[in-house]
Amino acid sequence: MGAIVGKAFLVCLLVFTGAATQAESLYREDAYRPLTADNKAFRVGDTVTVQVLENSSASTNADTTTRRKNGISADVSLTRNPSIAAGVNVAGDFDGGGRTQRASRLLAQLSVVVTEILPNGDMKLAGEQILYVNEEQQKVNLQGRVRPQDISEGNVVLSTRLADARITYVGEGDLSERQRRSWWRNIMDWLGF
Fold first, then answer.
1. Is the pTM of this model over 0.90?
2. Tens digit of pLDDT for each residue in 84-95?
């Protein structure tokens, strides 16, 4: 009889504790991907490969020419003294010109992470890649926003398809340091020499 009461107590205990626990589904809507779906990024934390193909060029020319010529002359003649003559001529010429030309090209490929899904479905991306070439550190930072339809089936997007893109490419090391102007040259330029 005691064994039957013990088993009944154990069954009641399991029924009451089982009712207190909640069952969770193995299906998670935010992580669901059909078996036939491609491997494109679609949620925060997914990676996307960005091919950076940026070309830019600018050219500006300016020519300025100014000429000025002024003249004043006077002639005074008195009967007792010799004639007195005076004259002032002022002339000035200025020719100026300038030209600036700049061209840049950046080719890189880096993987970035989806940091946010916007209400309209666009994804914010951010990432950084650091390379060391001949003891020089080369750093590429990328931030931007992409539409899901701009990402290819191979999970790749071109940098030209990013909205609000911020791409920085910075080199640090001896070579980069030698390309910077010296402090005394900046002071001389500021003083106008």
1. no
2. 666 666 666 666
- Give the 3-state secondary structure of 92-108: EEEEEEEEEEEEEEEEE
- Give just the sign of the alpha carbon dihedral 152, 156, 160, 166: positive
- Classify 114 as helix, strand or coil: strand
C-alpha distances out from residue 137 to 60, 132, 174, 175, Å: 33, 5, 10, 10
Residue with tokens 């893109």: 165
List of residues 6+ apart from 161 with CB closer than 8 A: 146, 147, 150
Which two three-digit tokens encode residue 92? 């000035």
Which whole-number Å values give the CA distances from 75 to 13, 70, 126, in the listed order? 130, 17, 81
Which strands make up the sheet holding 123-133, listed edge to edge?
156-158, 47-76, 84-117, 123-133, 136-146, 163-172
Q: What is the DSSP string of 126-179?
A: EEEEEEEETTEEEEEEEEEEE-GGGS-TTSEEEGGG-EEEEEEEEEESHHHHHH
Question: 97: which residues sit within 8 A by CB, 6+ positions away?
Answer: 61, 62, 63, 64
